[in-house]
């Protein structure tokens, strides 16, 4: 009997370890968000939009505004920001950017919404920004890893991010949790950290150092760490090719525009299969899963939300915490991924909003408790 009890206790401890965050010192609010996202993903999915409250189609900087709210009456549940402006610029510009981002994150947190962070990180070893440009860009992952020529510079960049993470205090005095998603779409070659410009070993070394330095040296305890390639995998083995290990990742995801209507091409069967790989790995490893980026530019398909996206999300018992569509550019007449009043998919998006499966900011109940 005693051996049976010990076996059960061991099994329970293994389950607890498998579903635990990688930061044992995570703030109570961050730990609660992690648990609540896991629970919500069993029956629902949260809707997200990049830069939703910073700007939208034809406007910028308006208080309490988002194109999603203009159409549905609610902000997205998940709002994307970017740490792009926190390096590679003069100090005064970085400070100004950080303050604007801080206000955005705190406002989202005070409303009960969730922030996710992309990082279009300017190459720290060359010109060329975050995109790889032949003849200009340097393969910098090997240079910023421990022992590399630009490692100390990278530590200073991470210090700026840590300072920001320590600054986002809500009205109750607690720090706003953020889902931090560095080095995304690494299986493509368009970014300087992409597969063609860095070895698997260097990519993993930089990932592990980034998490370790932020968490263990700089005391950042309000991040949930998300790993998300683009859609170039067709098996779990390929998905995990550059995976740094379960002890270094909280959430697994995928960015996928190509299977969902880009250039008029749809392959929903392939899209579902890839999401299934992500979802099943998360369940097996005790991680969160998410559809970290998708969308259809200009949304010319008037039923895209219910006939393409929602049908995909409801397929095959997927457990995904959120789906995020890309930004609505303030000036471009065509670069937008969420509807605004009068846009051709507006009515269908309202149906998507009202579906019990989807959750927006107004639907969230104490996700930090």
From TrEMBL:
> Which residue numbers mark the site Plays an important role in maintaining the position of the catalytic nucleophile?
184
Location(s), subcellular: Secreted
One GO MF term attached to the UniProt entry: mannan endo-1,4-beta-mannosidase activity
Sites where the protein binds substrate: 120, 190, 257
One family name in Pfam for this protein = Glyco_hydro_26
What InterPro entries does UniProt report for this protein, alphabetically?
GH, GH26_dom, Glyco_hydro_26, MANB/E
State the EC number(s).
3.2.1.78
Task: Provide the top EC class.
Answer: hydrolase
- Recite the UniProt keywords alphabetically: Carbohydrate metabolism, Glycosidase, Hydrolase, Secreted, Signal
Which residues participate directly in catalysis? 185 (proton donor), 293 (nucleophile)
GO terms, biological process: substituted mannan metabolic process
GO CC terms on record?
extracellular region
Which branch of life, at top level? Bacteria
Q: List, for all copies, the residue spans of the domain called GH26.
A: 28-362
Task: From the UniProt annotation, give the residues forming the signal peptide.
Answer: 1-22
| Family annotation (PROSITE patterns) | GH26 (PS51764)
Catalyzed chemical reaction(s): Random hydrolysis of (1->4)-beta-D-mannosidic linkages in mannans, galactomannans and glucomannans
Q: Tell me its family.
A: Belongs to the glycosyl hydrolase 26 family.
UniProt-recorded name of the protein: Mannan endo-1,4-beta-mannosidase
